[in-house]
Structures are given as C-alpha cells and as structure tokens.
C-alpha cells in the first residue's frame, strides 16, 4: 500500500494548480498518513495540526482509485432530458483531448430504472458524472426520487456549488463569487411523510447533530483550503428553533476551531433578499438541504442561469458530479439548444477530483475562451449558437492551445 | 343581504377556526361572501360593521421592534396631518419577555377593532423553544390565513429589473411554521411541516378570487412536490381543484428552485403566485429585493374577520379610499418626481425628510383648503362635483398658467383629493403627467 501512496503524494505535490503546497506535516501526521492513507476530498492544503480526535475522524480509509493502466474508469449516468445529449458531448470532448478516462455508462432514467446497478458501479469506480433523473409526480409516494436515493445511499453529504461571474457573460450583477455548501442527505429531503388523519399531511424535516457537525466541518475545511475568509450559515432558527437551532449551534462549535475564518449567520429570507440586491457580500455559505436548493438556484440565476454552474456532491468515499441546479431541461431536449457549459465544467471538476489537473485546466480554459473571446452563447444566455457549435469551438480552442500530451 | 350580515356577525362569535368549514358552505349564497374588509365594491355590503364611533375608526397599532416604532410614529404623523379619521390604539409587545400576556392583549385589541397595523416583533433565538414567535402566534390565533404581498416596480426607483408586477399569496398559518418540533433521540430533531386539505383549499380559493377581482390572468402554484410528494402534492392537488372552477384564469405550477431562478432572471413572466408558508417567505423576499428592498413593499395579512397590515400603511375602507389614494400619490410623488430616497435605495434622504416631503405634497395637493382669485383671462377653470363625506358639493379650482403656483392663483375654497384628479380634470396634459410638480404647474 505504502509505495502506491507515495506516488500519490508525489502527484499531489506536482499538481499545477499554481500554488506552492506546504508539506509541513508533523512526524505524527506523516506517520498517520502512511499508516492510514488520507486523501482529502479536495486537493490543496495539508491537514491542519489538530486534536487527535479530529485527526481520527478525518483519517479514514479512502479506497484506491479505479485506475488501470493509467486510465480511470468513471460511471456515467446520462439521465433524462438534456442529460444524454450533454453526456455525449462530454465523452466526445474527452476523447478529443485524449483524457485517460473511460466511461462506464449506466442508464437510469424515466424509461429504465437501474438504480441498484448504478450505485454498485459508483461504489466500484468511486467517481461518477450524472445528468438529472426526472421524478414523476404521479407515481405513488413510496417511489423515492432516484437522485435523492443515490445521494443518501452513497452518503454524498456535501453538495458544493461554486457560483462565479464568468467573463464574457453579461449579467445584472458582476463580481459574484459565492461558494455554497449544502447538506445533501437530511433536512426536508428525508422523504418521510404520512397522513394520519385524512386531509392532514405531516412531512418530517430531520436535523441531526452528527450530520450538521460534519457539513459545518466540511464547509470550514473547504473555506480554509480555498483561502476564503468568511462563512455564513443560512437558517430559519427564529421559527424552527430546535431544528435550525441545532444546525446553527453545530456551525458555531465548528467555527470556534477555525479562528481565522469569520463566521456569521443570516435568516434565509433576508439572505435571499440580500442575494438579489448585493450578492458580492457573500463568500462561503453553509446551510441545510432545502435552503441550499433555493439559495443555489438564486445564485445560479445571478451568474447567468442553469447552463453555467457545475455542481459536485462529495461523500467520504465517493464523488458524483452534475450540473449545479439539477435541471432535466425536458423542454429543450434534443433540440441542440442546451448550454453544455455546466456539464463540461462539472467534468472538469471530475478531472480535478481524479487528479488530472492539467486536462482540467485545458478544458476549462477552452470553455472560458469560447464564452468570452469567441462569444458563442446559446439561447439561455441570449445568443443564437447551438450546442454543437459551442462544443466545436471548445475543441478548436483546445487544439489551438497546443499539444500538451503525456508530459504529465 | 340581511341574512348575510347576520350570519357574518354570528361568525365573529364563533371560534375563527370553524369559519373555514362553515364559510365554504355559505359561499354558495354570495359571490365573495366570506370576505373581509379588504374586498372591493363587490362585497362592501357584506363587510361586518367596523369599529367606528362618531365617524372615526379605531385601529390597533403594534410598534414592535427595530425600526417599527419610528416608522409607525411617522404613519401617525402623516395620518394626523392629512386629517384621516383614524385613531390608533397602541399596544406594546415586549419581545424579551417570556410570558404571553402582552401578545394576548394585542390579540384582544385586534379582535375588538378588526384592523391592525404592526411592525415586526423580534424573535430572540436565545429564549427557550417553548417561547413561540410572537408574529406567528398573532397570525395563527387570529387565523390570518392569507398573506398578500404586491411587488411592483415603482417608477422612481432604479432597479435591475423593470416592469415587475407580481402578487404573492402565501398561506400564513400552517406549513413549516407550525412550530412543532421534538427531539426524541438526543441529537436528532424532527420538525413537522403540516399541510391540510382545508387550509390549502382556502388559500387557493382566496388566490383565485383575488386574481379574478384584480383582473389577473395567471396563477402559478409554487411547490416542491417532487420531493415532498404527499405534502406539497396535496397542496398542488387542492390548487388544481380550485383552478377548475375558474376557467378564465390560467393555472400552472413550478418547483420552488426553478421559480427562484426564474425570478432572478426573468421576473416579468409571473403574475399571481400562490404557495405554502416557507416558500412564500423566500419568494416574497426575493421579489421585495427585486423591486428595491423591504422598505418599499407593504404586506397584508387577511383572515376571515381581521386584517393586519405590516411594513407600510394601507387603508381600504370605502370612505377612506380618497385618503388612501392621496397618501399613496404623495408617496409616489416623493419617490418619483422629487426623487427623495433613503439610503436603502441609494439616496441621501433621512426618514424624517421623506416624511416631511410627503406631508408637504399632501398639503399642496390633497385635503387642503385654497383660496382662489377671481377668474382672470388665460386661466382655465374646471368644474367638478365630488362627494366629501357623502355631502355633494361643487368644487371649482383654477389651473393657473405655467409657473404660477396654485396657492396664489386660487380664490375659492376647494377640496382637492389627488393629483391625478386635478390633472385629469384640468385637461392640461392628456396623459396626466408632467403637469403638476412641487406645488406648481409646469
């Protein structure tokens, strides 16, 4: 095991993310590192020196990546609506750029329900890229949302959406840079409902201490790694005193362990109003499930719409990447009108996760140059280009960036 | 009609919680029978007798916390200045205390008067969870089931989006705000969100009725039924049922996350929106932010028998329509023509400056006495009959030539209600604008 981990550490140091990594691991940490391999979900800074208990909770067994002959295998779930179309473009682009990633396609959609195989495939590969799977409202309530089932079974507890104003996209607000971290497994999405008395439905919203601590810890760790200075917890504790009160308390506890990061809290209604008037004031936001859904959609709308924002779901052992706002886009499916940017940026996040940073940077650069220099915008951004035009332009940009093969 | 009003008075005695059920059956007799003071001409006959003595109304005033007391004192000032026949009964609610006595006093006062104006009462998180939010207690006890917020782009306020005109109707008593939480296992909290068929039908009915009365064409239900299938599914189903009885109004539904995204990119597509409690909170705040902030949007909470208004002043009683419109016009003139804005709108004015300006506009245009000179050549004279407190009088006023202030040109006592009426009657400018500004014709 140890030699393999040494190579990983080497790659870790050589990643061209442009930052010098401090490998100032204390002897005890190093010891722990080799004994129990630790690969934090986000590449970046080393573990801060911390108490034994915290190290224990973070030093968990990370299964080795599914990597054979230098190639990674990634589960691909096309989903419904624009999903299959965009997944096709991702595969095409990866093939064009010679990215050493093979896709294992598992179809889970409204026609074919293969969710158990999909989950098993993700467990096997460790990483997945998925489109949104439509939930039919007319089916009985015992039929759980497939997306939700995937998230809870794999315990993908953190949904991270980075809403950034992209150059070349004109929006009403500029300089927006918000990182939204949303609890992904509990809260209002527990799917626990019952009708004891006819005509009266009770939906349960579950907030637990352990999950709140976990997501708060994730948020602060991410903020520290990305060099962010402020974390805002979004809640409604004036009404839901016990539930959101517990969430807020957990955030405060975790905040006390990160003195360099400012922590504050805001009620969700005030947050949405501030987002619409002055979104530049927010830095990192952490919140329970439903508020996360609303806030992330508001932020996505602020930076240009659902076609631009990628999303990532991280768990302890697995990571699943998708578009940030989880839309199926049924109305524009197969019309060659969808914006591929969100899905392609999600695939870049995937590449970063499997440590193919150079490829990720090439593709990301090509996407940004298409948006800003070539100004090829699809209909949702007010332009007239088709999806295939945009993808072609991205491939041209990749090609013109020069050969950057195999020297990594 | 006598039967209706007697039934209504019986309702006032019965516990408001029954009204939902009985109200539905009585609805077959009258068009909008189970309505309340806010309704327009259709139901004026059916409104319960107001708390009115000697021609003056009594309205409960709850200053609340924060900017509430200050703003409400300005309201009192403006009302007194414009001679509005309303007396305020002030009830203080102390948010720091754990007892429920003060809020119960307020509720009794509102029951007595029927109408209230309130500022927000802060809910301190540090108090134990058994202490419920005061605002919530008020709403549930008085069964103020509909929260109506009308978000409109105001002409003088610069915002990123224009032409917004959204009416948000939010269920105000159940949903996530039921305050039912428990911790069965330590470290695991369950919050209950209650959705009932009765309340959902009631709010949907209110929404469609209001849409019809205001001539709106589309009602959108906002929900999250893909996740909360039973709960929001029931809400959606109730909305669909009610929609079938209003074929002239288009009904559609949208998931809350998509709604918030559309609101931020293209808010002009929305007309009337109806939704459960929490989504209503978020969506109304987003819309308030879109039209310029919380300082501009009034909110109203309507129940079967009571109405409580928040954030801005609003009067809908028949006889006070003129006063309402005069104040409203004064506000809009201040905002749009003199462009006196407070800091939240990017301006430099203070609250008192804005209020002074409003009062000045009222003085020059509305509810004032004028003395006019004898008609001289070149001056246009208009004649109009108006009802002042039900008395028919003939009112004449002179439109002076440009540059001359009306105060010096007027020679007869006139009672002017609103700028719009002056412009329209003078016929100086067909579209009624750019005619009257700061006490002079231009």
UniProtKB/TrEMBL annotation, chain B:
The UniProt entry, under Gene3D superfamilies, shows: Isopropylmalate Dehydrogenase
> Does the record's keyword annotation contain DNA repair?
no
Q: Which residues form a coiled coil?
A: none
List the molecular function annotations (GO) for this entry.
Answer: magnesium ion binding; NAD binding; oxidoreductase activity, acting on the CH-OH group of donors, NAD or NADP as acceptor
Report which superkingdom the organism of origin falls in.
Answer: Eukaryota
Query: Subunit comment for this entry?
Result: Heterooligomer of subunits alpha (IDH3A), beta (IDH3B), and gamma (IDH3G) in the apparent ratio of 2:1:1. The heterodimer containing one IDH3A and one IDH3B subunit and the heterodimer containing one IDH3A and one IDH3G subunit assemble into a heterotetramer (which contains two subunits of IDH3A, one of IDH3B and one of IDH3G) and further into the heterooctamer.
The family note in this entry says:
Belongs to the isocitrate and isopropylmalate dehydrogenases family.
Which PANTHER family does its entry note? Answer: DECARBOXYLATING DEHYDROGENASES-ISOCITRATE, ISOPROPYLMALATE, TARTRATE, ISOCITRATE DEHYDROGENASE [NAD] SUBUNIT, MITOCHONDRIAL
Q: What is this protein called?
A: Isocitrate dehydrogenase [NAD] subunit gamma, mitochondrial
This protein's species is Oryzias melastigma
Q: In the record, what lineage is assigned to the organism producing the protein?
A: Eukaryota, Metazoa, Chordata, Craniata, Vertebrata
């Amino acid at each position: 095991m140890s030699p393999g981990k040494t190579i990983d550490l080497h790659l870790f140091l050589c990643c061209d993310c442009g930052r010098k990594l401090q490998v100032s691991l204390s002897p005890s940490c190093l010891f722990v590192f080799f004994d129990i391999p630790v690969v934090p979900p986000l590449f970046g800074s080393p573990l801060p020196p911390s108490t034994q208990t915290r190290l224990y909770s973070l030093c968990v067994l990370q299964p080795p990546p599914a990597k054979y002959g230098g190639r990674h295998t990634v589960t691909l779930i096309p989903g419904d609506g624009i999903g299959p179309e965009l997944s096709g473009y991702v595969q095409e682009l990866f093939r064009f750029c010679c990215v050493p990633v093979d896709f294992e396609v598992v179809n889970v959609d409204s026609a074919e329900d293969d969710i158990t195989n999909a989950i098993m495939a993700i467990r096997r590969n460790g990483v997945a890229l998925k489109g949104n799977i439509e939930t039919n409202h007319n089916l009985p309530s015992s039929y759980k949302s497939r997306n939700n089932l995937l998230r809870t079974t794999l315990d993908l507890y953190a949904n991270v959406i980075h809403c950034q104003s992209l150059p070349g996209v004109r929006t009403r607000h500029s300089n927006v840079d918000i990182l939204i971290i949303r609890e992904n497994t509990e809260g209002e999405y527990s799917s626990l409902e019952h009708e004891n008395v006819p005509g009266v439905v009770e939906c349960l919203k579950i907030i637990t201490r352990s999950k709140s601590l976990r997501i708060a810890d994730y948020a602060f760790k991410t903020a520290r790694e990305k060099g962010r200075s402020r974390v805002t917890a979004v809640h409604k504790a004036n009404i839901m005193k016990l539930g959101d009160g517990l969430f807020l308390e957990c955030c405060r506890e975790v905040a006390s362990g990160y003195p360099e990061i400012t922590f504050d809290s805001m009620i969700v209604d005030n947050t949405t109003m501030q987002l619409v008037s002055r979104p530049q004031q927010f830095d990192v936001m952490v919140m329970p499930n439903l508020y996360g859904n609303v806030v992330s959609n508001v932020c996505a709308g602020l930076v240009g719409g659902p076609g631009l924002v990628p999303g990532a779901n991280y768990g302890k052992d697995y990571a699943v990447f998708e578009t940030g706002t989880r839309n199926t886009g049924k109305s524009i499916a197969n019309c060659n009108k969808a914006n591929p940017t969100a899905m392609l940026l999600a695939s870049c996040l995937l590449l970063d996760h499997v440590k193919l940073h150079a490829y990720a940077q090439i593709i990301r650069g090509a996407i940004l140059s298409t948006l800003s220099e070539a100004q090829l915008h699809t209909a949702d951004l007010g332009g007239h280009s088709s999806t295939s035009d945009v993808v072609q332009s991205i491939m041209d940009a990749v090609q013109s960036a020069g050969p950057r093969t195999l020297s990594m | 009609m006598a039967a209706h009003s007697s039934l209504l008075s019986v309702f006032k005695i019965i516990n408001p919680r029954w009204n939902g059920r009985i109200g539905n059956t009585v609805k077959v007799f009258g068009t909008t029978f189970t309505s309340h003071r806010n309704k327009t001409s259709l139901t004026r006959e059916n409104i319960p007798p107001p708390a009115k003595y000697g021609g003056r109304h009594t309205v409960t005033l709850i200053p609340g916390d924060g900017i509430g007391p200050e703003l409400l004192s300005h309201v009192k000032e403006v009302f007194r200045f414009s001679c509005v026949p309303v007396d305020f009964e002030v009830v203080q609610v102390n948010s720091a205390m754990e007892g429920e006595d003060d809020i119960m006093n307020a509720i009794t006062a509102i029951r007595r008067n029927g109408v209230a104006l309130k500022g927000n009462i802060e809910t301190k998180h540090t108090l134990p969870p058994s202490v419920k939010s005061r605002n919530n207690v008020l709403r549930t006890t008085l069964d103020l089931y509909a929260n109506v917020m009308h978000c409109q782009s105001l002409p003088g306020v610069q915002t990123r989006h224009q032409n917004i005109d959204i009416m948000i109707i939010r269920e105000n008593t159940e949903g996530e705000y039921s305050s039912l939480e428990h911790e069965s296992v330590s470290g695991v909290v369950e919050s209950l969100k209650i959705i009932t068929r009765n309340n959902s039908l009631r709010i949907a009915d209110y929404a469609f009725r209001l849409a019809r009365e205001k001539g709106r064409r589309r009602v959108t239900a906002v929900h999250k039924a893909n996740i909360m299938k039973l709960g929001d599914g029931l809400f959606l189903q109730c909305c669909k049922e009610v929609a079938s009885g209003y074929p002239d109004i288009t009904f559609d539904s949208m998931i809350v996350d998509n709604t918030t995204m559309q609101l931020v990119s293209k808010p002009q597509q929305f007309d009337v929106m109806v939704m459960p409690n929490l989504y209503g909170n978020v969506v109304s705040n987003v819309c308030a932010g879109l039209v310029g902030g919380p300082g501009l949007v009034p909110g109203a909470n309507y129940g079967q028998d009571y109405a409580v208004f928040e954030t801005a002043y609003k009067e809908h009683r028949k006889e006070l329509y003129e006063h309402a419109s005069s104040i409203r016009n004064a506000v809009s003139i201040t905002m749009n023509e003199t462009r006196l804005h407070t800091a939240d709108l990017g301006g430099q004015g203070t609250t008192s400056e804005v209020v002074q300006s409003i009062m000045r506009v009222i003085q020059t245009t509305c509810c004032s006495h004028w003395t006019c000179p004898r008609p001289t050549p070149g001056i246009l004279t208009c004649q109009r009959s108006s009802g002042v407190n039900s008395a028919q009088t003939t009112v004449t006023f002179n439109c002076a030539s440009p540059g001359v202030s009306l105060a010096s040109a007027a020679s007869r006592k006139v009672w002017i209600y609103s700028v719009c009426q002056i412009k329209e009657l003078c016929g100086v400018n067909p579209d009624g604008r750019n005619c009257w500004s700061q006490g002079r014709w231009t």
